[in-house]
Write a structure and sequence with these properties.
- The structure holds two protein chains of two kinds.
- By secondary structure, chain A is of the alpha/beta class.
- Helices cover 39% and strands 16% of the residues of chain A.
- In chain A, the strands form four sheets. Chain A has a six-stranded parallel sheet, with helices on both faces.
- The radius of gyration of chain A is 25 Å and the shape is globular.
- By secondary structure, chain B is an alpha+beta fold.
- Chain B folds into two domains: 3-96, 2-Layer Sandwich (Alpha-Beta Plaits); 102-174, ACT-like. Chain A, domain 2 (Alpha-Beta Plaits), CATH 3.30.70.
- Chain B is built from seven helices and nine strands.
- In chain B, strands 5, 6, 7, 8 and 9 form a five-stranded antiparallel sheet that branches.
- Chain B is elongated.
- The chains are: A alpha/beta, B alpha+beta.
Chain lengths: 604, 187
């Protein structure tokens, strides 16, 4: 290994960049500075493309967007101190949404660590609780192993962000190049052996439960996408002909146009998806985690449902809801096994329970409670839902849509018809405002041939709009649909509903300041202002036709519009608030009265 | 004066023997910088309290064993164990049932012992088979190792004389040997 004739002496910085090349990194997002400077020198000679952002948070979110649509780990490289702290939000965001991401941060020289040196911060300490794993490298020799481990950990098991903190002297010192083997990596990580194969007995048990269920619902979460299990999911759903709900993180994992798809459940899910889960007798939970935005009040969630819970993370089993059949494993592997097991049972003469009564009940809800909004009055502000529908209708095939957090995010998830996986990128768990634009840049970098629409609100947009410069100068032309209602819309909606319409600090006045069209143009983009319904489609068509520049289309939308349905925070899913025009029918969603219930149980 | 009179209700919170929610976790970890911070940080982040913690290198080089006593119901314990196991540096976690494990702890304490009290404290140390480590004009420093319950009793009795300073190590524990293992040891 250390034969001087074959050993190559290179700097730690060269080793770092070479390690990234060995990990097949083709693009990274970053921002140089003092301590990471040595790494930026060999980067100039590397085939790796470096996208220079305008704020480190942008680098992190771009890496997330890249990872979301490509399935490859996103890489962000920044310097020490403030740069590292600016990366904290994207790291936490990636941790919450299980996005594979590798962050590399510069650090002050080893001798200066702990001395409050210029631009020093305890990066591994600060990021310990927002990474899957992090590591402070203390010498140049350790760099290749640290990078290999970071990629291995970020991409296996439940994916997540990792961070490698590299002191400046580790970058400048010389080392003997050595690329660790798989065995060496595993030997260095004796405590990390993610289980991908589900327990065969549990898989059998799940198959039996599924065939016996009269009211099954497939509850598909983001894990389906992480496991590349969309096809397996479809096979399972079509085999048992059950309905599927796709969570905010799983939009696109199952086509919305499929007759078995109920769309998004949860706080702002559609009434059918929410109620079907609530009244189901079996939730086939695949890569989902019973988030509070899905369950509402946990004690009142799906009271009659048995739970099959497939998740690669053992800690998700029983964290919120105790499963009847816990299965720890990779979603794709486990679903495929469940399908095989069901087929075997069917061939052996087991018959699936009759689910037709349940299915027609669900279809009845679908007919009675479609997502709805009232069209805007002539001369008044646009309806945001209308803008999303138009965007969706006119979007070229394969369009990727990203969003920030708030009303516009919910409208997009509700009204965009997703027909393929990896076309929806948003900040689900952490709810990071400002995510949309930099994530869209990352998505565009991963899929340059696709149209990428960043749907944003006026609040979110102003948090990271500076990255429009990045989009322009790095030739990553995205399109921004800015739904400007002059308010922090979601907070305003809560103040309207729960704080007696006392609107505290939610008026952004963004129809006056800033001038978004001028802002866009000043950053090299095309800016378009849309104020009336008939201008919407032409503006979108124009934006779609411009492929060499980033386009910002500002839609002036109605601030009084609210997102419905809604389950108020802490309330039971049976108490969802419907759109005002549907509220009179609410009784149809209530669970059957108690006597009927008892009869049903007696019948079993 | 027994300390329980000074701090009503403190006894159940501060001693091992009365609290049924105490669980012992024996955690084998890679002995790397920051591993203790990762483990303790996880407890803090998830809102759980560590009652006692002892850490030292284990029998294999590069590994340490952490004995953690936590004050939890069993449902959250399962969750905290699972979260703990997600830490990359954690290799193995065993929950030790007190009935099936051997537990030891060390206590050292400086006790007021002027005049006639000195012989009383000395005789107490003798009864408990402890040691007198240092003697001053008005205080003595004593040590005792043994089962944590025994240390509790000893501490309670010392309290009557006035404890100046006292430090316990937190318990360490290992599973009791089963019969086959014992036979092999005898052979």
């Amino acid at each position: 290994m250390t034969d001087p004739a074959t050993t190559e002496r290179i700097t730690g910085a060269q080793a770092l960049i070479r390690s990234l090349e060995y990990e097949n990194v083709d693009i990274m997002f970053g921002y140089p500075g003092g301590c990471i400077l040595p790494a930026y020198d060999p980067l100039m000679d590397s085939p790796i493309r470096h996208v220079l952002v305008r704020h480190e948070q942008g680098a992190g979110h771009a890496a997330e967007g890249y990872a979301h649509v490509s399935g490859k780990p996103g890489v962000a490289m920044v310097t020490s101190g403030p740069a590292a702290t600016n990366l904290v939000t994207p790291l936490m965001d990636a941790y919450m949404d299980s996005i594979p991401m590798v962050a590399i941060t510069g650090q002050v020289p080893t001798a200066a660590i702990g001395s409050d040196a210029f631009q020093e911060c305890d990066t591994v300490g600060i990021t310990r609780s927002c990474t899957k794993h992090n590591e402070l490298v203390m010498s140049a020799d350790e760099i290749p192993m640290a990078i290999r481990q970071a990629f291995h950990i970020a991409t296996t098991g439940r994916p997540g962000p990792t961070l490698v903190d590299v002191p400046k002297d580790a970058l400048t010192d010389m080392m003997d190049w050595h690329w660790p083997t798989d065995d060496e990596v595993l030997a260095a990580l004796p405590g990390y052996r993610p289980n991908t194969k589900g327990h065969p007995r549990m898989i059998k048990e799940a198959a039996k439960l599924i065939l016996a269920s009269e009211r099954p619902i497939v509850y598909a979460g983001g894990g389906i996408l992480k496991a590349r299990a969309a096809e397996a999911l479809r096979e399972l759903v079509e085999l048992i002909d059950a309905h599927v709900v796709t969570t905010l993180m799983a939009r696109g994992a199952f086509p919305d146009e499929h007759p078995n798809c109920l769309g998004m459940p949860g706080m702002h899910g559609n009434a059918t998806a929410v109620t079907a889960m609530q009244q189901s007798d079996l939730l086939i939970t695949l890569g989902a985690r019973f988030d509070d935005r899905i369950t509402g009040k946990v004690d009142a969630f799906a009271p009659e449902a048995k739970i099959i819970h497939v998740d690669i993370d053992p800690a998700e089993q029983g964290k919120v809801r105790k499963p009847d059949v816990p299965i720890v494993g990779d979603a794709k592997y486990v679903i495929t096994e469940i399908v095989r097991e069901i087929k075997e049972l069917l061939q052996g003469g087991t018959r699936q329970a009759d689910i037709s009564a349940w299915k027609s009940k669900v279809s009845g809800w679908q007919e009675q409670f479609p997502l709805t909004y009232e069209p805007s009055e002539p001369g008044s502000a646009l309806k945001p839902q209308f803008c999303i529908e138009q965007l969706n209708e006119l979007a070229p095939p394969g369009t990727i849509v990203t969003s920030g957090v708030g009303q516009h995010q919910m409208y997009t998830s509700q009204y965009w018809k997703f027909d393929e996986p990896y076309t929806w990128v948003n900040s689900g768990g952490l709810g990071t405002m400002g995510f949309s634009l930099p994530a869209a840049i990352g998505a565009k970098a991963a899929k340059p041939d696709r149209t990428v629409w960043a749907v944003d609100g006026d609040g979110c947009f102003q948090m990271t709009a500076t990255e429009l410069v990045t989009a322009t100068l790095e030739n990553l032309p995205i399109k921004v649909a800015l739904l400007n209602n002059s308010f922090l819309g979601m907070v305003r909606q809560w103040q309207e509903m729960f704080y007696d319409e006392r609107y505290s600090s939610v008026f952004l006045d963004s129809a006056n300041v800033p001038n978004f069209v001028m802002m866009a143009e000043s950053m090299g983009c095309v800016g378009i202002l849309v104020e009336s319904p008939e201008e919407v489609a032409p503006a979108i068509e124009k934006a779609n036709s411009i492929n060499d520049r980033t386009v910002v289309v500002e839609f002036r939308t109605d601030a009084a519009e609210g997102v419905f349905p809604m389950v108020p925070a802490g309330a039971s899913n049976t108490d969802l608030i419907l759109h005002p025009t549907q509220q009179d029918r609410a009784e149809a969603l209530k669970p059957a009265a108690a006597p009927v219930d008892t009869k049903l149980k007696d019948g079993h | 004066m027994p300390r329980t009179r000074d701090y009503p209700g403190a006894r159940s919170a501060n001693t091992y023997s009365d609290n049924m929610n105490h669980h012992i976790l024996s955690v084998l970890v890679q002995n790397r910088p920051g591993v203790l911070a990762r483990v303790s940080g996880l407890f803090a982040r998830r809102g759980y309290n560590i009652f006692s913690l002892a850490v030292a290198p284990a029998e294999v080089e590069g590994r340490s064993r952490i004995t953690i006593v936590v004050d939890l119901d069993s449902a959250p314990l399962e969750q905290v164990t699972k979260q703990l196991f997600k830490l990359i540096d954690v290799i193995k976690i065993s929950e030790l049932d007190p009935a099936l494990s051997v537990e030891r702890e060390l206590l050292i304490g400086t006790i007021k012992a002027d005049g006639g009290q000195r012989s009383e404290v000395a005789s107490l140390v003798d009864i408990f088979e402890g040691k007198i480590i240092a003697v001053g004009d008005e205080v003595i420093t004593v040590s005792l190792d043994g089962h944590p319950n025994k240390l509790d009793d000893f501490e309670d009795l010392l309290d009557g004389y006035g404890i100046v300073e006292l430090q316990r190590t937190g318990r360490v524990a290992l599973p009791k040997l089963d019969r086959t293992a014992r036979l092999r040891a005898v052979n």
